[in-house]
Fold:
Amino acid sequence: MTISTHMASILRHPEQGYVLVAGLGVSGVSIARFLKSKGLDVVATDSNPSRTDKVKELEDLGIRCEIGSHRAGTFENAALIVTSPGIPLDMEYFNRARARGVVVTGELDLFSVFLKQPLVAVTGTNGKTTVTTLISEMLKASGLEVFTGGNIGTPLVDYLTSDTKAHVVVAELSSFQLDAAVDFIPDVGVLLNIAEDHLDRYKDFNAYADSKWSLFSNQSHSCVAVVNAGINNLDVRSNHLSSRIMTFGPEGEGGGYSATVGTQAVTLTTETGDYCLDLSSARLKGAHNRENLAAAALATLAAGGTIAGIEAVVAGFSGLPHRTRYVATVDGAEYYNDSKGTNPHAVMGALKGFDRVVLIIGGRSKQTDFTCLIPLVKERVKAIIALGEAKEEIGAALRGAAPITMVNSMAEAVTTARGISEAGDIVLLSPGCASFDMYTSYGHRGNDFTDLVNGLDPQD
Structure:
């Protein structure tokens, strides 16, 4: 039985039992509300005792809540479990429920059951939020109504309960969201890149790569897969896809559509001819952003957008907060916030855009390999300032590549960077790690860095 069939059965026969929502973060609360709006009996659980702020809101809707701990019976007796992406799928309570025949799914399958509009879904290790935003803006500039959600911040099920009537839904998806999906089928799927990340959650890199490639698992010949031509094993992986493949990169080539990325332009090859997107005046800089623009352009065309809409966004898009964003110039040194760079591959992309860098790096490790940074650090980094739980790990990995200073706080990192940097230097916060050792999110971390930099008084 598919998830769609199972959900349809529960909707027709709610007497089968309650639907359990596991995890009451932003998406979990939205899922619980949505399921209740469909007339279902809903129970919500979260082992985090701090989630009590959600209880009154949900209980006022008739949703029973269990906060602070999990109860095995609550999982084992559910008719269906819908989990939040932050909870590992091999959690003991899920396994016990599956042993009793309970289906465990996530937001994507639930969303797919009710969505009527075409869906563009974007995943990858880095660049997801940038490309999701670019596609949304390009489609809007093409005259289409767009809803944007998913890992970018707005739960997808919010669209199902909103008054918004979109022509296209554009979703940013994490590997954790994809792991819980069984029947999910995007009309257009975009895979930007795959690099080491979240190895604290996956048994190895191949398992993480499998998660990313699962975006295309259920696509048919009528669907489109936009894939980076430089991804390892592309030929082998693509042989297992049924969708129409479009590639982007320096050697982009594909069935009917492709995007070839140059230093000043992207050439879009379509069934009706070639189009050259001039990037010479684009405000997004760096090789990784040229690839992001190429991927977004292909996905936009596949979803019904226009060349004119694409060109309008290329000219005006200046990037996102916490993604290699200029903060200020202090004593001639420029400070940049790349707090969203939460893995070494993202740090590499940021470093490629600068020379003479004072790099602030560190946070909570994801068990990734920082030694991949050594060549770029030797070439472009003047000094390293390491902080957070991973600072000793980073220090060991990068020892000898550049001078390293260990600090205990972001305030100390900014003060140290100010003392090291000179006019013409770049002070770059690109942590290569999760933020949760010191902050609630990468945005919280980036805002702290920005505030501290803006609080520096230029020297006379």
Remarks:
- The first strand starts at residue 19 and ends at 22.
- The mean pLDDT is 92.
